[in-house]
Design brief:
Layout: E1 3-7, E2 10-13, E3 18-25, E4 34-39, E5 46-51, E6 58-60, E7 68-73, E8 78-83, E9 92-98, E10 101-102, E11 106-111
């Protein structure tokens, strides 16, 4: 059973940066594509970014393209989401995903 634990969320002012981390255990991390999703209060779950098993292919939602960067360290079984130029509309609970497995989420709040 794969376990995913997110960290790094918090409160930041608009224009600021945060770096989310997702530590994986219980599986073969390097074999999974990994993704970040988010859910704002009262809204549906939204795709943010994904990265393939080797880290050489990434994809982003249009809303975060050019501001967010997904990366991974297979030796540390960790995937990251570097978030720059944050906007109030980025406020959400951010979830890490690997196949059918999800983390518990980490809250990101961006104040205007």
């Amino acid at each position: 059973q794969v376990q995913l634990v997110e960290s790094g969320g918090g409160l930041v002012q608009a224009g600021g940066s945060l770096r989310l981390s997702c530590a994986a255990s219980g599986g073969t991390f390097s074999s999974y594509s990994m993704g970040w999703f988010r859910q704002a209060s009262g809204k549906e779950l939204e795709f943010v970014a994904t990265i393939n098993w080797s880290g050489d292919s990434t994809d982003y939602a249009d809303s975060v393209l050019g501001r967010f960067t997904i990366s991974r360290d297979n030796t540390a079984s960790t995937v990251y989401l570097q978030m720059n130029s944050l906007k109030p509309e980025d406020t959400a609970v951010y979830y890490c995903n690997a196949n059918l497995y999800w983390g518990q989420g980490t809250q990101v709040t961006v104040s205007s």
